[in-house]
Amino acid sequence: MTFKGPDGLNVLIATENKACGRQVQSMLRAMGIGELTEVFDLSHAILQLSHGGKIFSLVICDFLGQDGHLKLMKFVRNEQKLFPADTPVICIGALWTPDSIKAAHAGGVSAMLKLPVTDKDLGRVLSMLRQKAVVAPKPFPATETLPPQRGTTLDPAVINTRPKSEITGLEVIDEEHKLFFFHLSMLNKAIKEWQGGGEVENTLAVFRKFIAMHFSHEESLMESFPYSSRQVHKSSHDELNERLREDSAQAKGDAGKYARLASFLYEWMIDHISGFDQKMVAALRLHVLEAAKTDRLAAQTATVVHTAFTLAMKIPVLSLRLDMDWSNTNQRSLNAKIGDIFERMTNLMVLAESRIRSFGCNDHQLALLQEIQKAVAANAEVMVVSATKQLIHYGKSIVAGVHGLPLGIGTAINFQLSSVMELVSVAGGIDAISESSRAFVDRARDLVDSIVAMEKGSSVALADHGTIDAGMMKHV
Length: 476
Known about the structure:
By secondary structure, the chain is mainly alpha-helical. The chain has helices at 18-30, 42-51, 68-79, 98-107, 119-130, 156-159, 171-192, 198-223, 230-251, 255-293, 296-324, 328-359, 363-399, 409-426, 435-464; strands at residues 10-14, 35-39, 58-61, 89-93, 111-114.
């Protein structure tokens, strides 16, 4: 092999997964390797190797589709004549099966790494390549199904690590990917602290609710512009939901099965982001850029609409966090964030609709606006439930005597109830919200009535003892 070390090293990075490529670049630069050339597909990789004017001493690639890495190996090892045929090639993949490792080894891959890659992993491989060692990852057990495979259990420390490959470049989607791995780490924690399975089942139920919400957001985006891969992307979502339904039912009471399910979810998500989500976001960006080239006003309207859409998608995510954390400090903070986002979103909606009336809009913007309008009503109901739960939580503590009977509590708690009813109005009225949401509102009303009655009763008692002027009672 011609690999000598960092000094004078000239590296070609050929990764279809751009996030993976950026991560590798960052690691190599931290190691003092600065001569880097990056391409994003097989044809450009071969073009660089054959006509780029550089002699590369190391090639790092991902699968470049399904088997692009093997075609690249065939070119490097057998077809080109410009540089040594034994030039080291490192291949990075999310899923290595016994067959894929065997194929890569037969094709002449020098080292194989599994996502997520760390600087320690890469440094170890580079060190071993200097010693002319072939490095392969530990394969998944062979099964009759395609990867990601059932029966695999990853190291819990890996599951708790958020991979760099989650990045798509679209804030609302990237934030939800971060939350996916957060929920996964919480599931893994519940499995490790196994106490009969109840906590695991509850954690998984919240996780599944989040996954369904995330998929709905992605599918709304795909519906908003012409996207040829929409159906196959949605099918991937449907397949995971079905798999989750089946495996969740089968895993009940079995910590080992839950651990294998957590491992599967980790591997599935890494593969899904690089195989589907990054392509979806790239197509969306291209569509928006092409539309913006022809009209500056359209570009400005697109910015307003996309910002509103991003905010609309954040509210149900924050609401899910509210359901998971009942500490008063976090409740106040999350409710404040939801209120701020809702206000900003509705202001942007007014601005967007004004611009569209004046300047028009394209089909993509119209589709997004329709999704936002649906989200406004849905998010209003989410906020109804959140605000009502907070009111009930506080009202119960008043009735139980935790805070005594604060002066003016009737006026204050009636004001909170009026805020709830304003949100109900935004959601379309009491008949438009779900039965469970109406139940929360009814409970809040009953509590408010009880607290007001308690306050009046207390005031009457004080008047009877001469503590307050009876003439003031009409103002209570």
